[in-house]
Amino acid sequence: MNNTSIFIQTVIGGVGIGSLYALIALGYSMVYRSMGLVNFAHGSIYMVGTYFGIMWYAGLVMGLHVPYPIAFVIGVLLNGAFGVLLERILRPLAKLDLMFMLLGTIGLGYVLDNLFVIIFGAEGFAVRSPLPSMPLVILGVRIQPQMLLVIGVSAILMVALQLFLARTKTGKAMRASAMDRDIASAMGVRVNRMNALTLAIGSGLAAAAGILAAPIVYVNPAMGAAVGLKGFAAAILGGLGSIPGAIAGGLIFGVLEAISAGYISSAYTRGIAFIVVVVVLMVKPSGIVGEITVEKV
Amino acid sequence: MAILDGTSGSPTRKKPSVGKWALYGAIGIILLAVPAIAQNPYQVHILNMAGIYILISLGLNIAMGFAGQFNLAMGPLWGVGAYTAAILNTRYGIPFWLNLPASMVVTGAIGALVGLPSLKVRSHYLAIVTIGLGEVINIILLNQEKLTGGALGIPKIAMPGFFGIPLNNDRRFYYLILVVVVLGYLLARQILGHRIGRSFRAVRDDFQAARAMGIDTTYYQVLAFAISAVYAGAAGALFAHLNTYISPDIFEFSSTLFVMTMTMVGGMGSLAGSVIGGLALPILQELLRVIKNWQLVVYGVAIMVVVLFVPGGVVEIARRLRESSANRKSRSSQSIAAAEQAEDSGVP
Fold first, then answer.
1. How far apart are the C-alpha atoms of A200 and B146, rounded to whole Å?
2. Chain B residues with CB inside 8 Å of A110's CB?
3. Is 70 exceeded by the pLDDT of residue A297?
4. Of A40, B65, B240, B243, which has fewest CB within 10 angstroms of its CB?
5. Alpha-carbon distance values, B9 to B3, B71, B129, B196, B231 (Å)
6. Mean confidence (pLDDT) of chain B
C-alpha cells in the first residue's frame, strides 16, 4: 500500500458518498427551479424513500425478502408517487417568503420523521449489502463493491435525467415551465402537473440515494437530517437551481469530506466541508455554476 | 391589550391609560407570584426554560424579524454563551454575575463574525452559510475536549447567589430570569425605537434604498447579528448556571429550529411575538407529552398550519381580532388609520 493508492481509495470513497449527495442535491435544485421552493423536508423525503425500498428487502413487510434490485425499483417508484402527493401540500408553501417556506417545509419534515418513528420505531437497523463485502483490489487500490454500485447507479441516473430533460417532450415542457411559469402555461404546458413530476423525480432520486446508501449507513427515521443538510449545502455550493451545479456540488462536497476525514481530522470532517462551502460562497455568492443574480435598484 | 401591540418600540405610541397601567400591574403581580402558585418545582423549571428561550427568540427576532438577516446559528451561539460561562465558572471560579457580561461580550463578538458573510450572500445562501458556521461552532464545542470536555460536556457549574441568598433552586432562579428577560425586552424596545431600529427596518425593507439614504448597511447588518448573539449569550450564561450541566448536543441545529418555530408561532417582527411564542411552545410541548410519539407529529402539523394560515403568528391573530372588533364599533377614519399603521408593522 503506497500513498498514491491510499489517496485514490479516499477519492473513490468521496466520489461514492458525493454521488449520493448529488442525487439529493438534484432534488433540491430541480424543485427550487420549477416551484421556487426551498424544500427543507427533502432530507425526510430521502428517509421515507429509503424505508419504501428497504422495507421489502429487509423483510419489514410480512417477512418478505425481495431481491435488492426489485426493492430498489419499488422504493424509487413509491417515493415518486409520494412526491406527486407532496406537490399538493407544498404548492401553497411555494408562494410564501423564504422564512415561512423554510419553517413550513421543516414542519412537514417533523411530521414525516415522527410518523416513521411511530410506524417503524426509533431504533434503526443495519442492512446487508447485496454484493460481497470483500473489497475488490484493482492495481493495489481496495474498493468496496457496494461503493462501485453506488457510483455506477448514480451515474446512470444522472445521465438518464439529463437525457430526459434534454430530449423528451415532457422534459422540455418541464424546463419551459421552470423557466417561465406564465408563458409555459400560455403555451399549453400544465405547470402544476410539471411541478408534480419534478417533485416525483426529485423524490425518486432521493429514494435511490437512500436505498443505495442503506448498506453503508444505518437506517433509522432520523437519518434524513444530516444528509438533507449536506445535500442542501451541496446544491447551494453548485448554485441552487442548476442541475450540473447540483452534481458538481455533491461530488465536491463528498470528496472534500473524504479527504478531510482521511488526511486532516475525522472529528472535524463536517466542519471543514462547511467551511469550504462558506469560503466558496464568499468568493462566488451564487455558487460554482450559479447564475449571477442582479440586485434590484 | 397594550402588550400585544405589533409596533413595539414605535416612537409615536400613546401613553398608556390608567386601565393599561392596571393591566401591567396585574401581569406584574402574577409574574411575581408564579413560584408560589406553581404546584411543583418542575412547572417553575419549564417557565425558567421559557424565559431563556424568550431571550434567544428576542435576539432572533431583532436580527430576522426587524433587520431581515437570516441568523440560523442562534442555537450554537447560545452554546457559546453557555460554554463561556461554564468554563469561566468551573475553571476559574468566576461567579455568575461576571460570567453574564463576559458571555454576552464573547458571544456578541462571535455573532458578529458569523454575520460577516451577510455582506456578500443573501437569502437561502445566507441561511446555509449561517447554518454551516453554526455547525462549525458545534463541532468545535464537541471536539476541543481540553477546553469544553467534548461530548461529555461540563458538569458542576455553580448556581449563583444574590447578596448571600443562594439562587439554588428553580423557584429562586425564576426571579433572576424574570429580571433579565424584562430588561432584555425593554432594551430591545429601546434599540428598535432608536435610530438603530429604524435603520434595521430600512435594511430589511429595501436594501438599495437604505444605502441610497446614506445608511451604513455593512455596519447595521453586522450589528444585527451581534445584537442577536448578545441575547443568545445572556441566555447561555443563564442556562449554564441554571442547569449546572451542559453538553454540545443541547446546542445543535435543532435548538435553532425550536427557537425559530417559537418566534414564528408568536410573531416574527414583533417583540410581543417572541414573548408569546417563547412561553407557549415549551408549555405546549409539556402538555403534548400525554400523546407520546404523536407529540412531534402534532407539533409539525401545527407549524404548517401557522405558516399557511396565520404567517404573522399569534400576534397577527390578536391584531385581526382587534381590527374586526374595531370595525364593528365604528367605521370611522380612525380605524382605517389604525389598520394602515398595523399593516406597516406587519411581518416582512
1. 48
2. 296-297, 299-300, 303
3. no
4. B243
5. 11, 22, 30, 12, 17
6. 86
What ipTM goes with this model? 0.81
Half-sphere exposure in the Cβ direction for B323 (13 Å, CA): 16
| CB nearest A107 (choices: B64, B125, B304) | B304
**Whether this model's pTM surpasses 0.80:** yes
Could you state, in order of their start, the residue ranges of all structural domains in chain B? 39-252
Q: How many residues does chain A have?
A: 297
**Is the C-alpha dihedral spanning A188, A192, A195, A199 positive or negative?**
negative
| Residue extents of the structural domains in chain A | 3-283
Interface of B with A in 77-96 (CB under 8 A): none
Does B307 contact A297 at a Cβ distance shorter than 8 Å?
no
Cell readout for A52 is 419504501
pLDDT at B16: 61
CATH number belonging to domain A3-283: 1.10.3470
* Residues in CB range of B278: below 8 A, 6 or more apart: B50, B51, B53, B54, B57, B262, B263, B266
Cβ–Cβ gap A267/B142 under 8 Å: yes
**DSSP SS3 for A2:** coil
Instruction: For chain B, say whether A38 makes contact (Cβ under 8 Å).
Output: yes
